[in-house]
Design goal:
InterPro entries: DprA (IPR003488), DprA_WH (IPR041614), DrpA_SLOG (IPR057666), RuvA_2-like (IPR010994), WH-like_DNA-bd_sf (IPR036388). It contains 17 helices and 12 strands. By secondary structure, it is α/β, with parallel strands linked by helices. The chain folds into 3 domains: 73 residues, DNA polymerase, domain 1; 188 residues, 3-Layer(aba) Sandwich (Rossmann fold), CATH 3.40.50; 59 residues, Orthogonal Bundle (Arc Repressor Mutant, subunit A), CATH 1.10.10.10. Helix 7 runs parallel beside helix 8 and helix 10 packs across helix 11. The termini are far apart.
């Protein structure tokens, strides 16, 4: 029954996280909140008659029973804000979610957690900076978790780089587990879980797809991290909003400077110019501000990455990629006489092994 009560919180209309936490603190427990008389709840600061009129706890409990069946069928876990598995960094954020849904076995309370965000229209320069940053973080410590939003551009680049460098990565999404957005990133979500990371959401399976949800998602990305790094961003957008939220949570914010006049450098330059972000040049800047010391990987972990056993099919694909700097997936299919499904699967594996890089338009290249 305890799990039903926790799930029901996602279905309480008119009550946001701050209000729900107040109500539970006032009543003393989850169960008491669902049994307390409505008129008594109006005594709680911030809860007036207008909010109480919207309160339908019976309906919330019925929805929670349906949701319980859904999460059990789909192997989804819960993290309630009073539970030990809840991200402890979020407890310092006044508007953090009361409950999180997640898939995966990642540690939400790793000793080092960094969020990396940026434009969906990432340039080659932005991707290179992202890859280099994560690689450098990996060389310094195996304890660093990379957090982002599974979106196009810098987000997905950060997740891929984390997996390539054997770092856990947490993807915070703006929808329930009944869907995946963008749909093309479903394969990466599965790989994140498979590689010891997790997909996290505060939204239940009946949540309607709403762009505003991604704004709410950003506060989780900011709150779960020790520092937020903006790699490329326009003057307006989700990345700057995430940086703003991170500052409000007293998190350190870093931004990579860009060329004057470059649209997707305007946001980063603005953050630096207005003292809302530290200028980020190398990983050492992060170490200096956060006071982190190096914790090198064991030699065995690094050595294992140097030797990758390739199948004949993978070697055939690599042979095609060696012919030119960048190659489309269609050409690879023709040259290898493999179906598209097989080539996509093999390229994905090679990408996670750090051998191949993907580019917009289903273009691929060998890593140097």
């Amino acid at each position: 029954m305890d799990k039903i009560y926790k799930l029901a919180l996602s279905f309480i209309n008119g009550f946001g996280p701050v209000t729900i936490k107040k109500a539970i603190a006032y009543t003393g427990s989850l169960e008491a909140f669902f049994s307390e008389k409505k008129q008594n709840l109006t005594k709680i600061p911030g809860i007036g008659h207008a909010i109480i009129q919207k309160l339908d706890r019976k309906s919330a409990l019925l929805h929670a029973e349906e949701e319980l069946r859904f999460i059990e069928e789909n192997e989804i876990e819960l993290a309630f804000y009073l539970d030990k598995n809840y991200p402890q960094r979020l407890l310092n954020c006044y508007d953090s979610p009361c409950i999180l849904y997640y898939k995966g076995n990642a540690d939400f309370n790793a000793s080092r957690q960094i969020s990396i965000v940026g434009t969906r229209n990432a340039s080659d320069y932005g991707k290179e900076q992202c890859l280099k940053l994560v690689k450098d973080l990996s060389a310094k410590s195996v304890k660093t978790s990379i957090i982002s939003g599974l979106a196009y551009g810098i987000d997905i680049c950060a997740h891929k780089a984390a997996m390539q460098n054997q770092l856990p990565t947490l993807a915070v999404v703006g929808h329930g587990f009944h869907q995946m957005y963008p749909a093309q990133h479903k394969k990466y979500a599965e790989e994140i879980i498979h590689n010891g990371g997790a997909i996290i959401s505060e939204f239940h399976s009946k949540s309607k797809f709403d762009p505003k949800n991604f704004v709410r998602r950003n506060r989780i990305i900011a709150g779960m991290s020790d520092a937020c790094i903006v790699i490329e961003s326009a003057r307006k957008g989700g990345s700057l909003l995430t940086a703003e939220i991170a500052n409000s949570y007293n998190r350190d914010v870093f931004a990579y400077p860009g060329r004057s006049g470059d649209r997707f450098s305007e946001g980063c330059n603005f953050l630096i110019k207005t003292n809302q972000a530290h200028l980020m040049d190398t990983c050492k800047d992060l170490d200096y501000v956060l006071g982190w010391e190096d914790e090198p990987k064991a030699a065995q972990g690094i050595q294992a990455k140097l030797f990758v056993d390739l199948s004949e099919e993978e070697e055939a694909i690599i042979a095609v990629l060696k012919k030119s700097e960048k190659t489309s997936i269609d050409i690879i299919c023709v040259e290898c006489s493999f179906p598209m499904s097989k080539v996509s699967s093999l390229l994905l594996k090679l990408e996670f092994d750090g051998i191949v890089s993907s580019h917009p338009g289903k273009i691929y290249s060998l890593n140097p």
